[in-house]
Design goal:
Blueprint lengths: L2 E5 L8 H15 L3 E5 L27 H12 L2 H14 L4 E4 L9 H8 L4 E4 L13 E2 L2 E2 L10 H4 L7 H17 L8 E4 L2 H9 L7 E3 L19 E4 L8 H11 L3 E4 L5 H11 L3 E5 L3 H9 L3 E4 L9 H8 L4 E4 L14 E4 L4 H13 L2 H18 L2 H14 L8
Helix pairs in contact: 8-9, 8-12, 11-13
């Protein structure tokens, strides 16, 4: 059976990218493939016998000493440690049939890609964000959605302090992007790029990347792990990070305008100011904090609909597919890849991103619909996930890409 080298910075369920990475590994392990993960040491990592090949932890939120910071900075640009550790892993494996990367910049760094190319291993990279075009990941800065770096004008990252409003961090990230463009780390060494949304595919091509290297493979959910509950509640629920680009402030304003109850699940840097805003507006908002597993599923199952009010170029949010799997419709902003995942008036509604009145109208519309209508939307969403976003379909689509690259056993 083939050997899959599976690469991601983190080896625990941290976010959407990690969920796809870990579930990808599980799916191919079930086929009988040898799946060898390559990642970073971290206290939250899942147990694995492959961890002896993982690189030293780099955690940007950690309180390192100045000496530790200085020692780690070069690794974020080009990690010789990651190359050496990966070489050891490949020696143990006696090579690999395919390498599939997810998020690898800054922690593992793109330094490993040329090593894979040198060893003759075809490499696939799933793009969970816009990093290859925008050094700051999401084409977002202090004044909203931003495409100033288009055409190679990467200095804008520093001019606008796009990384945590820090000139130093922004300069570091810009330097990394310039270095790997000069080296051709992605262009020369990656065999195929996979994107979960058509919006991202088109955006990368607009910025000059070759369309022939891209394949659209939507995200997936293992629906058997999601118990749907179709009778709707009366509240609306948001699940995600509490930060400016997620549009939660707009959602709170809309909830106040629509006089509806809102449950906010998640934590983040904007949490305090969002609480103040809700109080000032007299909005009926409950901040539930961080939930996971069955607690999270129960919060969504008890809602009327999930709301995704993003004000940035989202890719293909897992929260939409998970809401459908739990039997709930979705109200989503018309931005990025979100509209691809919503069938208006069938599985949910869309609204103008950043427009509180437009969102309030959507909230009122679903609040006024009969419970039977909302239940029918939830059932259609669940059916759509089962038919188009299943784990089996995802694996079939990935195997098709691997087969293009001549991976033995990928056509099975």
């Amino acid at each position: 059976m083939p050997t899959l080298l599976s690469i991601n910075n983190y080896f625990y369920y941290r976010g959407g990218a990690e969920t796809v990475f870990l579930e990808h590994n599980r799916l191919f392990g079930e086929l009988g493939w040898t799946v060898a993960p390559f990642s970073m040491q971290h206290p939250k990592n899942l147990p694995t016998p492959w961890s002896r090949y993982f690189v030293e932890e780099i955690e940007f939120g950690a309180t390192y000493s100045w000496q530790e910071k200085l020692r780690r900075i070069p690794k974020t640009l080009y990690s010789f440690e990651a190359r050496a550790k990966l070489a050891q892993l490949l020696e143990h494996l006696q090579s690999a049939d395919i390498a599939h990367g997810h998020n690898l910049y800054h922690h593992l760094s793109p330094s490993i890609l040329s090593l894979l190319k040198k060893r003759g291993i075809p490499t696939v990279l799933t793009l969970h964000d816009l990093k290859l075009a925008c050094p700051a990941y999401n084409m977002l800065t202090h004044d909203g959605v931003c495409e100033r770096c288009r055409g190679g004008r990467l200095y804008n990252v520093v001019v606008h302090k796009c990384i945590k409003d820090s000139t130093a961090l922004s300069a570091l990230v810009m330097s990394e992007a310039v270095l790997h463009r000069l080296l051709g780390s992605y262009r020369r060494n990656v065999s195929r790029f996979i994107v979960p949304s058509l919006f991202y595919l088109e955006k990368f091509c607009e910025w000059g990347m070759p369309r022939a290297l891209f394949r659209h493979v939507p995200n997936f959910v293992s629906v058997e792990n999601y118990r749907p509950e179709y009778p709707p509640g009366s509240t609306f629920v948001y699940v995600g990070r509490l930060s400016r680009e997620k549009g939660v402030a707009t959602l709170i304003r809309a909830a106040a305008l629509a006089s509806c109850r809102l449950i906010v699940v998640g934590t983040g840097p904007a949490q305090s100011e969002l609480g103040v805003l809700a109080t000032q507006l007299g909005a009926d908002v409950v901040f539930a904090g961080y939930l996971r597993g069955e607690e999270l599923h129960a919060a969504v199952r008890g809602a009327r609909a999930l709301v995704l009010p993003s004000e940035c170029y989202e890719n293909a949010p897992m929260s939409v597919l998970e809401a459908y799997a739990l039997g709930k419709p979705v109200i989503g902003a018309s931005i990025g890849g979100i509209p691809e995942l919503i069938r208006p008036n069938e599985t949910g509604l869309t609204f103008r991103s950043g427009d509180a009145q437009s969102l309030a109208d959507a909230l009122r519309q679903l609040a006024s619909h009969s419970d039977d209508t909302i239940e029918a939307m939830g059932r259609r969403g669940r059916r759509w996930v089962e038919e188009s976003f299943s784990a089996a379909l995802y694996r079939e689509r990935i195997l098709s890409v691997y087969n293009e690259l001549g991976v033995p056993g990928a056509a099975a």
